Amino acid sequence: MLLAAPPRPLAPFRHARRALRAFSSPPHAKSLPPPPAAASAAPPALRRSLHSPKGRAHEFRDALDASLARRLPQAYGVASFDEYLTTLRRGAAALEGRGGSAHASPREARRGEDAAAAAASELQAGVGSFRLSPREVKAHLDLHVIAQDEAKRALAVAVCDHYNFARRALASAEVAEGCHVKPNVLLLGPSGSGKTHLMRALTRLLRVPFVKADATKFSATGYVGGDVDDVIRSLVSAAAGDVALAEYGIVYIDEVDKLAEPPHRALLGGGGGGVNTRDVQCALLKLMEDAEVPLKEVTPPRTLAPRGEPPRRVVRTRHILFVFSGAFTSLEQSLRQQHAADDVLHLARTADFTRHGLEVEFVGRLPVRVACRALQVDELVRVLTEPKDSVVEQMRSDFLGYDIELSFTPPALRRIAELAHAEGTGARGLLTILEGVLRDFKFELPSTTIRHLEVDVETVSDPASRLEALLRAEGVKPE
């Protein structure tokens, strides 16, 4: 008997790949990884043989069989020693196929297989079972975003077209490799018109990985700044490490107009001479086609690294949907001069984009183009009251944290919308106005007995006077 006590569960096969080689090697094999517990308890002669480079595989296997064959199934929760070996081989293969470590026990290997099965199930549940209609997608967007009906319709059709094809591609390899032009999207519109909010609402509906990035953080390879490939790697993180699921995700890149460098600026040296403009556009258009992005693997310590080259994991972008957005302020100004109108972004054509710095090839890979309009006062009032996640509800929630009920009169809401419209930042201006009006109330009222605050027009117009009156009635001197 080589062992006086059962081994620790992870000790005998910490190096799964090398252990498997020991079990399958012929007697003339020359290097073996002895299990620490077995080696420490073995007789001196056998221990030297196990640790020696000239130790033979059959000695290691015989020693292991004699000492552990009965205990390993119990330690690892399997029925027999043969099942232990089968599980170890299958688990190591599954982990390597998913980019995991081959240094795993059978129990860890089974967890790897379970994770792979769960990921496949999630992919099938999200993409493989996609059956939404464009009208259903728009109805969902209507719950969260006010106005912008044309943008909602364009997004709904693009998403449904894309994921209907993805569903068929999952079911048929022939369809997956067939000719298909992705309906990548370009959203235009001023700040605060709802472009980002549209995408956030869309991701609540779709069960696919989603990442958002800012185009201004990217730079050409070799320069300081983010690599465009990093956004694809982030998609893998959003998919909890599952590459297959990430390959059907959505990438949303905002501020794409910052990549547009008009020729006269490039000649003057503006914008980094194309480092953050043309080169980045070229890198992005490659991703929009059918590129393979290698994942950055963590190299294990040399003493733990398995023999041979580790499997190279890549993310294929063929079925990843790309959505870009930007304000395109200079383009809008140019179009206003051409058409003598205010609402003009929807009139932009490919030639307009290229004149303002976007590459022809880049624009050509964005077949779905739609403009969001600037929100007017009436629409801003609806933004305050209709969406489930409106800023008014956020303010009510803030005050409820202090056990104070907050309410607004209709004239007060309209006055807030008028002030926000004057800010020129669209829906974002609503929160700016509300914070300015209610900040001092949040500071003072939680220390009083006041449990209800009604915001009227006078409160919006002169919040300091209204707060002072409330505190005076409470006998409190404001700071």
Automatic annotation (TrEMBL):
Keyword Nucleotide-binding belongs to the record: yes
Species this protein is from: Prymnesium parvum
Alphabetical list of InterPro entries matching this protein: AAA+_ATPase, ATP-dep_Clp_protease_ClpX, ATPase_AAA_core, Clp_ATPase_C, P-loop_NTPase
Keyword ATP-binding: yes
Gene3D superfamilies membership: 1.10.8.60, P-loop containing nucleotide triphosphate hydrolases
Annotated region described as Disordered, given as residue ranges: 15-58
UniProt GO BP: proteolysis involved in protein catabolic process
Biased composition (Low complexity): 21-31
Molecular function (Gene Ontology), one example: ATP binding
Protein name: ATP-dependent Clp protease ATP-binding subunit ClpX
Residue span, AAA+ ATPase domain: 181-352
Residue span(s) of domain Clp ATPase C-terminal: 375-469
Cross-referenced SMART domains: AAA (SM00382), ClpB_D2-small (SM01086)
Keyword terms: ATP-binding, Nucleotide-binding
Pfam families named in the record: AAA_2
Transmembrane regions: none
